[in-house]
Specification:
Pfam families: FSH1. By secondary structure, the chain is α/β, with parallel strands linked by helices. It is about 45% helix and about 10% strand. It has 9 helices and 7 strands; from the N terminus they run ααβααβββααβαβαβα. The chain has helices spanning about 1-15, 15-25, 50-55, 60-65, 100-115, 120-130, 155-160, 180-190, 210-240; strands at about 40-45, 70-75, 75-80, 95, 145-150, 170-175, 195-200. It has a 3-stranded parallel β-sheet with strand order 5-6-7, sandwiched between helices. Helix 6 packs across helix 7 (about 155-160). The model is unreliable at about 1-30, about 100-105, about 110-120 and about 240-245 (pLDDT under 50).
Length: about 240
């Protein structure tokens, strides 16, 4: 393609130096291609913590976890009530928002400053809020998202801003058949353009991934890995062309 033609032109001008530079950018120390893992900011559930979510996600197959670069973050507000996981997981517990507008906005700014992409109610609304120019304007576009037991915000204003158009961000949704948030989770899924949905028989939990679900999860991972690879190739191409040795 156009990229290859530009590299050929440069290699003819400086044969050895330019080609060697390209190889350094695209090959690992063992000669294999360097592929960056898709990176996710993991937002824990209501009145839990980053440490708890680490434990919950490790119910997933190692073959899934090893393909992801997972970053865990505690919410900005200390828990102000009883946690549903009290007695199951050790405290401290945290909350992303406390049902007033000021604190919810603080939570959005907190994630904004962390500069990651981001589950649940909060993350399900972020792609739309970012596209509208309301949140996360100083960080790259959210490229993909995994939502476990998600639901829409209830605030009319946030609904108008976050879900007023079909969201084209590649998304993977886990939906529990007995989850009390299931009706709201279905509404959230309907706001995404091409959602991949994994159904499980449990409630509002991080589910295990069975053999049937694994096929869907694996297909989604392959899709986002291809997106990451194409993005990296574009970056390498610009560096190879602009900075030949």
């Amino acid at each position: 393609g156009k990229q290859a033609r530009r590299q050929t032109a440069l290699s003819q001008e400086r044969p050895n130096q330019t080609v060697n530079f390209c190889l350094k950018k695209q090959m690992g120390s063992q000669g294999g291609s360097i592929v960056r893992k898709p990176r996710f900011l993991c937002l824990h559930g209501f009145r839990t913590s980053a440490e708890i979510m680490k434990i919950q996600l490790h119910k997933w197959p190692k073959a899934v976890i090893d393909r992801l670069d997972l970053v865990f973050l505690d919410a900005p507000f200390p828990c102000q009530g009883k946690s549903d996981v009290d007695g199951v997981f050790d405290p401290p517990y945290y909350e992303w928002f406390q049902f007033n507008e000021v604190q919810s906005l603080l939570s959005l700014w907190f994630i904004h400053d962390e500069a990651f992409r981001g589950g649940g109610i909060l993350s399900g609304g972020l792609p739309g809020l970012q596209a509208k120019g309301i949140a996360l304007q100083k960080v790259p576009k959210i490229k993909f998202i995994i939502i476990i037991g998600g639901a829409m915000f209830r605030s009319t204003k946030v609904v108008e801003d976050a879900y007023s158009f079909s969201i084209d961000t590649p998304s993977l949704h886990f939906l529990g058949e007995t989850d009390f948030l299931k009706p709201y989770g279905i509404k959230l899924i309907e706001s995404f353009k091409n959602p991949v949905v994994v159904h499980h028989p449990k409630g509002h939990i991080v589910p295990r991934i069975d053999e049937k679900s694994l096929e869907k999860v694996t297909a989604f991972l392959e899709t986002i890995e291809n997106l990451v690879m194409m993005e990296e190739e574009d970056k390498d191409g610009e560096e190879n062309i602009c900075s030949p040795i």
